[in-house]
Design goal:
The structure holds 2 protein chains of 2 kinds. Chain A is an all-alpha fold. Chain A contains 21 helices and no strands. In chain B, 37% of the residues lie in helices and 25% in strands. The radius of gyration of chain B is 18 Å and the shape is globular. The chains are: A mainly alpha, B alpha/beta.
């Protein structure tokens, strides 16, 4: 393994700016000419941007509509729900980060390697774009509430980090707590009425399935039976709780703004991944019917623009579903985005599967591993690792494609602009400020995703081999 | 009967037969890779298969653990006959260790995880026990200190020894070696061959496809020469290297020795 450490240190003295300029900007005539042309051009561009942002830009339109951009037409007297959600999600993130850090620590100790815990500075470096976006929001804030929410978010994250101190044998409990905080964070806005308990029960059951391993039982079927029983029991408990605590909440037809954008994207990403994975495996199946179905689905979806799928979701899905089932517009939009992205994820995963040498499968077979085990333990970890960049790219484009929802009359982050410019005060105002603001918001989150993907790639050492 | 003729027939073996191959044909499309192969390998016997490339040596041992499916004939390992039944195939693969030319270690797992994977998943061995077993096998191939590294951090010779340890951890009855030293730099060949010699001395039943004639001479109970998908000649190393009968064998030996 050769590493970048072997690169010689820079020989230039950084303090000597003139030498640096001569060496870097004017190494030869051609580069010198380029420098002479480009530096004034870039300077002028920077000047224009500065002029727009600091002098000419009339940011009042953003300042006065900050709440609208963030939560859209969400009922104002239910606002506490969103605040509670942010705090709960921060708690979940904290617990997750704490647990992940602790288990990384365990692994390092077991392998006899040194372990350095990443500090808060590291966190800022990873998410600086989003943090910058939040700081701008706080700058625009006219009341103290956003500051309190931000402080609460940080505090709750720090509290969650305490999960690090859970003993090793409780590691899975940390993950379960994180899942619980996530579910609670979702439900505090969406309420507990209707069929909400089904989603929660499924999540809790899945969480318990992974937490409770029943290592003590020797037989595989006994373990499976025990875990299934626990999962069913948990579902029943969730149902009981939900049938006693009825809180109508705010159905997501009333959600909008950045809040909606983030949820729609997150749900579509989380749902499209397993679906895409299954499609990729089905396309490589030895059963012709399964393979044909998967291939047909993928090729059909990839041949259709997302916007047509969204329209079909709104206008045609109604006729295909059994009468009486009234899916909300947003559910249908999420379904369309999920189905669309899954086809692309499937192709990306298939590429990863094909990139592995056949020797890997053969080695698994020769050891007597069953085909599903070979897939789960040998092929998929390597294949998925290899396609992280492509997959995150797909998810980033899904995130940005969520703007298409405004065409089917759902006011997500970008769509809120039409509400803003419908206001009497801002009807005549140019659209530049709101556009720049929205663009910056999308960039902040996309860039964070991209950075995280690079980090994950580095951590899993994709480039190695 | 002189010693050079004792095992002259591939269908006889020293002691009880562990691997039985009867009348096996194998086609890749129209190309016939194996033609009427008959062979027995006895308990604790070391059989070295040599021959020019494309002669079907690798295909033969890959048929034994069903990495390739033979088209005609019968193959049995330890009395279990290979059929299309998945469980049957799994059972044979558990009894048969295989070492590949390209090592085929799992690059995303540490050396220790590479070795413990199959015992844990297939034999349902607890983690601790599997790790003890893995360390035992790593000691056997003389690299216990590399247990926590990843395959990419090891030299080719070390990787191949890990591959041998990984196969041994399933406690196979038979070991199949598919040109184990062909992808190695010359200075690393010896460390792998040494491990294989020790394995043979410990009484492991082995079929080795190789171009290492020194190994064949020193360790093999029998040498099988294959050409064009057929077994051309079989004999003890002594017979084989000093007094080959068939023209094709003589030609091959004259080319490589």
């Amino acid at each position: 393994m050769t590493s970048v450490e072997s690169r010689p240190p820079p020989t230039l003295d950084r303090r000597n700016a003139l030498a640096w300029a001569a060496h870097r900007l004017f190494p030869n005539v051609r580069s010198g000419i380029l420098t002479v042309i480009l530096i004034p051009l870039l300077g002028y561009l920077a000047y224009r941007v500065f002029l727009f942002v600091a002098v000419n830009g009339r940011w009042e339109v953003v300042e006065r509509n900050l709440t609208l951009f963030m939560q859209g037409t969400f009922p104002r007297d239910e606002q506490w729900r969103i605040v509670a959600q942010i705090v709960l999600l921060a708690l979940a993130a904290g617990i997750g980060a704490g647990t992940a850090s602790a288990s990384a620590h365990d692994r390092a100790i077991e392998a006899g390697l040194p372990f350095t815990r990443s500090g808060s500075l590291d966190l800022i470096r990873r998410f600086w774009s989003v943090i910058g976006f939040v700081l701008i929001l706080l700058y625009f804030a006219s009341t103290t509430t956003p500051w309190l929410v931000a402080a609460g978010t940080v505090a709750s994250f720090v509290v969650g980090l305490a999960a690090r101190f859970l003993p090793t044998s409780w590691r899975n409990v940390g993950w379960a707590l994180m899942a619980l905080a996530l579910v609670a964070g979702f439900q505090v806005v969406s309420g507990t009425s209707g069929r909400a308990w089904i989603i929660s029960a499924v999540l809790v059951a899945l969480g318990l399935l992974s937490v409770v391993s029943f290592e003590g039982l020797a037989k595989g079927w006994a373990r499976l039976g025990g875990r299934t029983a626990v999962a069913l029991g948990a579902s029943a408990v969730v149902f009981l709780i939900y049938s006693n605590v009825v809180d109508p909440g705010v159905g997501w037809d009333a959600w909008s703004g950045l809040h909606l954008t983030l949820w729609v994207s997150a749900l579509a990403i989380v749902l499209s991944f397993p679906l895409g994975l299954m499609l990729a495996l089905a396309r490589r199946s030895s059963l012709p019917a399964l393979r044909g179905l998967a291939t047909g689905y993928i090729e059909l979806i990839r041949g259709v623009p997302l916007i047509t799928l969204l329209f079909m979701g709104q206008f045609i899905l109604v006729f295909m579903l059994p009468t009486g089932s009234n899916l909300s517009d947003i559910s249908r939009a999420i379904a369309a985005m999920t189905l669309f992205t899954a086809a692309y994820v499937a192709e990306i995963v298939r590429g990863g599967l094909q990139s592995l040498p056949t020797g890997q499968t053969e080695a698994g077979q020769a050891l007597g591993l069953a085909p599903p085990t070979t897939m789960r333990k040998i092929i998929l970890p390597q294949a998925l690792r290899a396609v992280i960049p492509a997959m995150v790219g797909q998810f980033i484009s899904l995130f940005k494609d969520s703007t298409l929802l405004l065409i089917i009359a759902i006011n997500e982050f970008l769509g809120v602009r039409s509400l803003v410019h419908a206001q009497a005060d801002f009807r005549a105002v140019a659209h530049a400020e709101t556009l720049v603001f929205a663009a910056f918001g999308y960039w902040a989150f996309s860039y964070a995703m991209s950075k995280e993907s690079q980090r994950l790639e580095h951590r899993l050492r994709v480039g190695e081999r | 009967m002189t010693t050079s003729e004792i095992f002259a027939d591939a269908t006889e073996s020293k002691g009880e037969a562990v691997i039985e191959v009867d009348g096996v044909d194998k086609y890749f499309g129209d190309f016939q890779a194996l033609e009427d192969i008959n062979m027995r390998v006895g308990l604790q016997e070391v059989v070295v298969v040599i021959g020019p490339s494309g002669s079907g040596k690798s295909t033969l041992i890959r048929c034994i653990n069903r990495l390739e499916k033979h088209d005609r004939g019968r193959i049995a390992v330890h009395g279990i006959e290979l059929s299309d039944d998945v469980r049957n195939i799994q059972e044979i693969r558990r009894e048969t260790g295989m070492v590949f030319q390209q090592f085929n270690l799992f690059p995303h797992l540490t050396v220790l995880e590479n070795i413990t994977l199959a015992p844990r998943e297939v034999r349902r061995m607890p983690k601790k026990e599997a790790e003890d077993l893995a360390m035992e096998q790593l000691t056997r191939v003389k690299i216990p200190e590399q247990a926590r590294k990843y395959p990419g951090q090891l030299s080719g010779g070390q990787q191949q020894r890990v591959a041998i340890a990984r196969a041994l951890a399933m406690r196979p009855k038979v070991m199949l070696f598919d040109e184990p030293t062909s992808a190695l730099d010359p200075e690393m060949i010896k460390e792998v061959l040494d491990v294989m010699v020790e394995l043979a001395e410990a009484g492991m039943t082995m079929i080795v496809v190789t171009h290492e004639m020194g190994f064949a001479r020193a360790v093999a109970d029998r040498v099988v020469f294959m050409s064009d998908g057929q077994i051309v000649e079989v004999g003890t190393p002594q017979h084989f290297f000093t007094d080959p009968r068939e023209e094709r064998t003589k030609l091959f030996l004259s080319q490589i020795l």
